[in-house]
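Box S2. Input/output pair 1.
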Amino acid sequence: MVPDAVTIAPSGVIDLQTAPALDERIRAALAELPARGRLVVDLREVRLLDSAGIRTLLHARRDADVAGSEFRITGAHGIVLSALELTGVAEHLAGGCGGSA
């Protein structure tokens, strides 16, 4: 049975070196989700997120939107949350409509 929701929980650093592996995990999860499924990326254990990581999350959000699936991040805190807020994407990645990253 295919789950309606999948959570991916990366840890450590998401940067130019590690973002491609996260992208692969996200793409695989989206491919497995049914229409109107939900993909959650839990950033609770991520301690650093650079522009490559932000780009990966933005592409994942776009791909989920195109597929008719829901995408959101949760658990962002500290410097990770600051990076998302400073770049103006925190709310968008948290699901829009005022969702909390």
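Box S3. Input/output pair 2.
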Amino acid sequence: MHARTEAWYQRRERVNYHATSVMLTAYKCAWYGRNLVVIDRWYPSSKTCSTCAAVAETMPLNVQAWACRCGTTHDRDVNAARNILTAGLAVTACGAGVRPQRDSSRTGRSATKQETPGATQGIPVL
């Protein structure tokens, strides 16, 4: 088999595995009445300070503990877990994305909690 063809099949298997795992997780969430919140794959969860939200410019993968400029010392995995939880809760509560919007798509409004309209909305007052 040609090297490019073999690499393509390996990539396809990885993509299929990811799609299958997401599909099974979504199925289990629906089965148990839970919501599945998926955040952006490139969200910098491990290099964002969970205390002050400062983002480190670079962080090699071999760094397991780091100190933020605010003085907080983080374990990389625990910090990432906190940031992922916070991002998921923001999506659940506000319907907001976990990454800042691009300048070209900003509306100037912050995310607000999405609530269903009241039962009397739209009924004319006599």
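Caption for Box S3: Residues 103-115 have pLDDT under 50 and may be disordered. The beta strands are 65-67, 73-75.
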